[in-house]
Amino acid sequence: MTENEQLFWxxxxxxxxxxxxxxxxxFYVGDSHLVEVSQNRVTIFLTSKMKRLFWEQNxxxxxxxxxxxxxxxxxxxxxxxxxxxPRQYTQQETYESTPTRETYRENKEDLSAQQAVAPxxxxxxxxxxxxxxxxxxxxxxxxxWAVAAAIAVANTPGKIYNPLxxxxxxxxxxxxxxxxxxxxxxEENPQSRILYVTSEDFINxxxxxxxxxxTGRNSMETFKQxxxxxxxxxxxxxxxxxxxxxxxxxxxxxxNALHDTEKQIVLTSDRNPNELNGMEERLVSxxxxxxxxxxxxxxxxxxxxxxTSKVRDYPYDFPQETINYIARQFDNNxxxxxxxxxxxSLVASVQQVHTITVDLVANxxxxxxxxxxxxxVISIKDIQKQVGQFYGVSLEQIxxxxxxxxxxxxxxxxxxxxxxxxxxxxxxIGKEFGGRDHSTVLHAYHKIQKALTADENxxxxxxxxxxxxx
Length: 470
Hints:
Elements: H1 3-19, H2 22-28, E1 33-38, E2 41-46, H3 50-58, H4 60-71, E3 76-81, H5 106-116, H6 144-155, E4 164-168, H7 174-188, E5 194-198, H8 199-213, H9 219-228, E6 232-236, H10 245-260, E7 264-269, H11 281-287, E8 291-295, H12 300-310, H13 320-329, H14 334-351, H15 358-376, H16 380-391, H17 395-399, H18 405-421, H19 426-432, H20 438-452, H21 456-469
Helix pairs in contact: 1-4, 2-6, 6-7, 8-9, 12-13, 12-14, 14-15, 16-18, 16-21, 18-20, 19-20
């Protein structure tokens, strides 16, 4: 590398580090390098083709600026790609200084200006779980594209992938990633209006406002204002909107309002947009406007990496052979690994040991599997029968439409226990209670859950019913 090329690339790195967040810089710039500057063209090596769009959107002005500064001419930019390439130098040695982090510059200034002229916008609840960050999301082969896209969106919301649609099975990190996007944007711009909700939250919120609307208050306008005046809308489990005609209509209009004003939309689902049966075609089409990325189950190496990261939160010593053993026992999702660690921690606490051995893990996992097996044999019919017997209500009344106080209470308690004691989904539980909507089940669950905090008699009653069921 010539001296001028070294100066030029050094300048690109410094300006990039000043502009980007550390996580973004490390992912998109950290493993890139200069191939050559020949005549009026600069060639830059990137480890994947997916990173090219980010460079084109966010860094090419920096490359051009550095070209004018060092070579006194405008450089045309081309890229080479590959998983690995011999380094011609160590990037860390090229930094002139440790630059300070800056904001999104134009994006933030535009956003601040918009907020300054809209002081009447309704306040938003803080719905982001701050424990979900890019820094503690373990990256691997099964989620690398999703991570890359999420970081790009967090760095330039509304400008690059809109909407971003992340899909994959349960427990693979979709909620972590979508929340990390919100947290990263909020960290850079605390004034940004970010709303994270699940589809259940969206549906229940709309039902509540529709109900209030019937009393003469224009509550639906408040609902629309809440969802359409955000800067970033994050919706988890969008598949739950399937077959919800009125809800889909409102979300369609909300989507259009946000997309037209370049507000960022991020959605997660358990399946690809084209596989969302019951979702209107026009919504599926819009989901495909941006970028769709999949998260797949972690392989063995990634499971080891995830466990290595998570065991740091526990006050125990986990030898490598123990971590390897745990990683071999669970291959479906990250949630299973987290559940296993909690169970292992409980056993270690009871036995008052510090070092987690393979034998201890094996015993803890067997205990966990026994508990899960016992839990799975409980049916919704068993719960309905025991609740009915306890309160003197027939099974037909529990699944029927009768709404006397005694019947409604028994029905809601049965729904609560069905969610607590079985692995059935909300729609499945609703179906077993006379074809009721999943939002009805969720309402019953929250109502009984709240009542239990203040009603000791109800606590005793439910404990007795649970003993009878088991």
